[in-house]
Structure formats: structure tokens, C-alpha cells
Amino acid sequence: MSEGGKGGNGRDSYDLIVIGAGPGGYVCAIRAAQLGMRAAIIDARETPGGTCLNIGCIPSKALLHASRLYEAQKDLSAFGVEAKAPKLNLKAMMAYKEESVEANVKGVGFLLKKNKVAYRHGRARLVSAGAVEVGGERLQAPHIVIATGSDPAAFPNVKMDETRILSSTGALSLSSVPKSLAVVGAGYIGLEMGSVWRRLGAEVVILEALPRIAPGMDGEIARHLGRLLEKQGLQIRAGVKVKGIAAGKKGAEIAFADKNDALFVEKVLIAVGRTPLSGGLGLEALGVKISARGFIETDEACRTSEEGIYAIGDVAGGAMLAHKASEEGVVLAENLCGIKSALNREAIPSVIYTHPEAASVGKTEEALKEEGADYKTGRFPFTANGRAKVNREAEGFVKILAEKGSDRILGVHILGAEAGLMIAQAVTAMEFGAAAEDLARTIHAHPTLSEAMKEAALSAEKRALHM
Ligand code: FAD
Ligand code: NAD
Predict the structure, then answer these.
(1) Cα of 50 to ligand 1 centre, how many Å?
(2) Which CATH architecture has domain 5-151+275-343?
């Protein structure tokens, strides 16, 4: 590998330059540096970590955690704990969220330093294959990785002013609890942020265009999750077409296409997906192929149509998830360093961090039906799991879909208190090409929620022991 530094032409030269220091970019740079590459990373934000650490996964999980503690504290009498009703201090909760972000962002800064990855703050663009401009300086490298992520998708003709009409970023930083909040979109952000503000006292209505919520999830899981969220007080209106949203002094008015009624709320959160950030990077001029929806086109090895230019994470399409972005970063760095490495796109887990959580890996039942696959289903409810009953968190179930005949696991879907943790075991099983029988024969510690996984696997052969 070449040593970085000033080349004969006065430019800074590296083996690898990454544009975007989110979970895709920073992990790619660290892995490349571990393997001996001299790497630089550039981000338009002062702090590394990208959307995920600064305005995404981490702050949203902080608010989900804090709001859940607040709500759970309201009534512990079932456990023999009598306490005064908790009082919300939103300012302190927001400070806790900020501290959590800061700690994580600092951690990434430390890791970049430790691995001798140069960090440049500024907006970057490619001036040619192999050369990037940032803050009037030119950096060069034979390999350039675009990891610029995504931004909240806009709603047609609606400006997200972050006062009345919010994006996810605004919804993570409100200074008071709105009396009423309408959320447009019942995907990950809508359900998670809707849950946060409902727990903190807002009247929340979620408006979804499709006839169902959480479109990427298994339909049965989504249906049950919807029912449980409604029981918690979230109003869900699926199959509605929002025509327009107008901000006023006291609130915002939502008009619907197919109804005469309108909805007046204090604030609106737009959560209708995210758009890739592929513009302004000079990619078109270099001939890099970009799809009609703005995603940079890549092959399995994250190579774009132009040699020496690669794309990973949200900007490259596929699941817009932090761990998918990171894994693409690892695989790309390894391939560039001569290690044959690949990512199993069939085993990318996804989790909606509501309470209970919804977690999924592999094929949904709808996808299997559409393919005409010959499959069997194992199901086990948490109401039959000892620990879930003790914890009084017995909502939900585990569902395992396995191929008939070979018994190979095709998909696992969980609705339950620790679904996000439990799905890891299903991902591992799928990575090893396991059969449902493998999970059924695996000894699970008692009493744990994870025993429901074993029982669901047993139930695929109609031999669950506790049901
Ligand atoms: P990003 O994290 O978006 O990072 C891209 C970086 O590139 C940014 O820092 C940006 O400033 C920089 N950049 C862009 N253009 C330029 C340029 N021209 N020059 C220099 N820098 C540039 N995913 C999960 O897996 N789990 C979750 O719990 C989760 N929660 C989320 C909650 C919210 C509210 C949101 C909005 C997203 C959440 N996500 C979650 C999605 C996750 O944040 C993204 O999938 C992930 O951040 C994508 O990583 P990335 O590296 O591709 O891009
Ligand atoms: P999403 O794609 O998850 O959900 C968007 C929802 O909006 C869908 O249900 C869609 O049908 C609906 N919709 C689209 N247009 C609409 C309209 N005009 N009216 C009403 N509904 C409409 O997108 P998101 O919730 O904005 O999140 C963006 C991305 O960020 C997600 O795709 C996800 O990958 C990522 N994310 C992940 C997590 C997590 O992993 N827990 C959390 C937050 C965000």
C-alpha cells in the first residue's frame, strides 16, 4: 500500500477516500485501515457518525428508551411496587438524548483516530475518477467510496419547516409535548416516533396510504403490532390519501383526497421514506449510473459503472439500515484489499423498536406465497412462555417459516418484548443454512424469552411442548 501524504503535485494522496462518515463510510474506512490502507474520510457534518448517530438510530433509541421508562413507571402496582406518578422533564430527557449522541459520536471519532483514518470536514465532490475536492483542497486516491446516505423524503408541495411540519430530525428535538401530532407514514419512523410522543402525552394519529402498516414486515406481525399500538392509544388510519398539509399559526391542517373531512393538529411529522443523496457529487459528469429514484447503481461488490468509484449504504439502495451499510463497508474494504468477501443479503435483520418490538429476517409469508414456495409455519405465542408471563410482557409471538422437505429456515418474524435481541439467533441460524430442526434441538436457557424460538421451531413439526 502507498503511504499517504503530499504527492509531487501537492495533492493529498491516499489509498482510499470515503465520502460520508455514517455507519457505511466510517466502518469501511476503519476496515480498510486495519488492512493497511491509508484512508481518508470526508463529511459535511462536523461530527462523524452520519444520520445514524447524529439524527437517526441513536437519538431515536434514546427517546424510545426514556419514554418507555416513563410510561412503565406509571403503574408498577402489579409487581408490588408503589411509587408516585412520574413527572416528565422533557428538557432533561432531551439532554440525556444529546449526551447519548455525543458519547457515540466521540466513540467513532476515537476509532477513526486510533486507526489513523484522516477526517476532513466539508462537502466533497468528485472532480475526476481518483480526485475529490473538499474545502478548496484536492485529495486523490485510486479508490473512492460514496457513502453519502439519504435525507427525509419530501411530501409534494409541503415544506418541512421543523416547527409545524416536521421531518424525523425535528421530531427528535421538540421542546414541548404537542397536544396533538399527526404522523404521515406508518413505517419505521412513523411507528417509533409516534410511540415516543404518544408515551410522552401527545394525542397521536398515524396516517398511512397503504391498507396496512409497516409494509416491509410480515403481514401477520404488522397486523398484530397495529392492534397492540392501538390498544396503547395510538390512532392508526390506514388506506388514507393525504392530499395536502397546510401550516398555520396554531397548527397544521391536513386535507384528504377521498374524503371531505380534514384534520387539524398541532404538529405533523412527515415520515414517508428517505431519498438517496447522490446529487451534487459530480457523479453524472463522470458517467456513474444513477437510477431514476436517485440510487447509485452498484453490483454485488459495491462497484459502480465507473472503475475506482464505489457506493455503499443508503445511497446504493436496498435496505436503508445502518447494519446493512456497515456490512457493505466491510465487504468492500476487504475486496479492495484482496480478501474475497461477500454479504448475505438474504439474512439482513430489521427491527421496529416499538413496544413490543417487531423483528424480522428472511422472507415474509407474503413473499413466499407470491413465489409459490412450498413452506411450513411454526408459531409460538409469548403467552405460553414462562418468563414472558412472569414479566407481564406476554404480547406477541414467534413465527418461523421453513421449506417443506429440506426444513431449511426461510424467514423468522417476531413480535415481542425482546424481539430485536432474539432475531440475532435466527440470523445466525440462517447464516449457517440451518433447518428448523436445528433450532428445535438447540438448548435454550430457562426461563428466557428465547425459548419461544425453540418452541416455534418445534411447532413447525407440530410438536411444541408448551402449547
Ligand atoms: P448516513 O448515515 O446517512 O451518512 C452519510 C453521511 O454523508 C452524512 O453524515 C452526510 O453528512 C454525509 N454527506 C452527504 N453528502 C456529502 C458530501 N457531498 N460531502 C461530504 N459528506 C456528505 N437504521 C437502523 O439500522 N436502525 C435504526 O434503529 C435506525 N433508526 C433510524 C432512525 C431515524 C430517525 C432515521 C432517520 C434513520 C434510522 N435508521 C436506522 C437508518 C440509518 O440511519 C441509515 O440506514 C444509515 O444511517 C445509513 O448509513 P449511511 O452510512 O449509508 O449514510
Ligand atoms: P418507511 O419506508 O419505513 O415508511 C414509509 C411509510 O410511509 C410507508 O408505510 C409508506 O407506505 C408510507 N407512505 C408513503 N407515502 C405516503 C403518503 N403520501 N401518505 C401516507 N403514507 C405514505 O420510511 P420511514 O419510516 O420514513 O423511514 C425511512 C427509512 O429509515 C426506513 O426505510 C428504514 O430503513 C430507516 N429506519 C429504520 C429504523 C429501524 O431500523 N428501526 C428506524 C427508523 C428509520
Answers:
(1) 5
(2) 3-Layer(bba) Sandwich (3.50)
